[in-house]
Amino acid sequence: MLRLLNLELQKLLLNRTSKILIFVSFILPFFVILLSSLKINVFGFFTLELGELGIFNFPIIWHLTTFFASQFKFFFAIVVVSMIGNEYSNKTIKQNLIDGLSKKEFILSKFYTIAFFSLVSTVLIALISFCIGLYYSSYNEMSIVIQETNFLVAYFVKLMGFFSLCLFFSMLVKRSAFALAFLFILYILEWIIFGLLSWKIDMNTAEKIQNFFPLKSMYKLIDQPFQRIAMSKFPEKADLVYDYAVHWHEIAIVLGWTALFVFLSFRLLKKRDL
């Protein structure tokens, strides 16, 4: 595993564009720190400081930071599709196979790279969230601090699933731009199918089916935290209540898609005449 990972990291670090995109994808999550220190002047009457509103208290901070950090995943998605696009355009994929790398090892090297960067990103978010929480949170008991750290697991799985989807599309079309376009097409397609289902059957059943779709299932791992923040400020508002927790069956769905995308990528490469 380390040999394949090291091989792939060398390729990425020798490419200037990839190095820049990797750097940016790791730097952007630190903007969560800027969010915590943001001060908003309300028409000159008073200054609203987000950090003093309690939204960075433990354990809600794990939910908030992982949700915002996951919005930056598209930058590393460009790295993933470029990995494959460059292999085909530079003919290095054929050379790697000639040099003794099997097709299975080729796909595994990409998957190990995806897992590695997903893990590094998760560790970064964990450290950022912990530091912000220690500074702003009113609760420092360890039992409260570690509550809801399962959002970090959900964040890791979400990145793995999304990047594996990017890997599959890259293997399918061989071009970076087309692979990214396929993500947008899949997003539109999922909503079209949902619209047809809600027209044919009731809305609740259509939503349950939609939660099994690739992109939707990844999004559902970490639901938006704004409604939860509003719930904490206005507990009497029953209409604000919603299920924001991380569910293990949702993680299992995304892991299933991840395994399928990696397997399909391997099958495509195995059948393709290089």
TrEMBL record:
TM stretches of this protein? 20-40, 60-84, 111-136, 151-170, 177-199, 251-269
Keyword check for Transmembrane: yes
Q: Which keywords appear in this protein's UniProt record, sorted alphabetically?
A: Membrane, Transmembrane, Transmembrane helix
- Protein name stated in the entry: ABC transporter permease
